[in-house]
Structure formats: C-alpha cells, structure tokens
Write a structure and sequence with these properties.
Strand content: 25-35%
Strand order of the largest sheet: 1-8-3-6
Number of strands: 8
Largest sheet: 4 strands, antiparallel
Structural class: alpha+beta
Helix content: 25-40%
CATH class: Mainly Beta
Number of domains: 1
CATH superfamily: Jelly Rolls
Order of helices and strands: HEEEEEEEEHH
CATH topology: Jelly Rolls
CATH architecture: Sandwich
Amino acid sequence: MFIQEVELFQGIPSHIIDEIAELITQESRQAGDVIFREGDVADFLYILEDGDINLIIQGEKRLSFPVNMIGAVFGWSSLIDPNRYTATAKCVEESKILKIDAERLMRVFQRHHAESLTIMKRLAGVISTRLVNSYKEIVSGGKR
C-alpha cells in the first residue's frame, strides 16, 4: 500500500501511518459507478489508487472536476462539518480507490494532535486548490 506516499500523509511517522492503514479498504469500481452523491452523509475519505474520477457539482450550470492523479484525495467533506459530500463522485473509467473510515480516522487524529494538524493543513490546501479551480471554471463559462 502506498499510503505514506500520498501527499496528505507524507512525512507522518510510520507508527501513525500503520494506524491509518488499518482503517483502509480497497475497492475496484467500473466506469459509470457513482461512489457518492452530492448531499449524501460523508462517512469516508477516498484516495485514488488508479483510474479516473469526476467530481460533479450540480447547480444552474454543471461543473465537473477530474480526479485522475494517483494519490489524489477526494471526499474530504467526511472530515469537516456538516459531513455531507459537496459533489458527486463518478468513475470515468475502471478505477481502484482506497476508502478510509472518517470517524475512525478522526479518533487517530485525537491521539496524535501535531500530526493531525499537519494532515488537516494539507487537506486545506487541497480544498483551496479545488476552490480556485472552480472559480476559474465559473469565470471561463465552463471552458478549460
């Protein structure tokens, strides 16, 4: 498992990585599969192991953001109140994903405050990047 190579967890001590690894299940999904829907209760954090996922936000206009880099994190809403997914995650092609139980992950965070702060700062960076990309998508009228 490559969890220690995922940007969120790089540099985190191995004993904490081992605790996190115990929470992970691997899933294989087919093209067209919906992993979660916008508005669903967010119980899991996901990491892309292989494949291509689209995050889709419905509104007056439909916005779609690719998750296609190995190690990319999605489903971050599982770690932030009100714990509802803010987009629909749909497989573009056959994909392998790692699924982490968010409630149990938060318990690991409670035991390791300094490392959890590092992880949450990195998560804030992921959220910030996606927010900037969504602004650009809106301003460009959906053209990339």
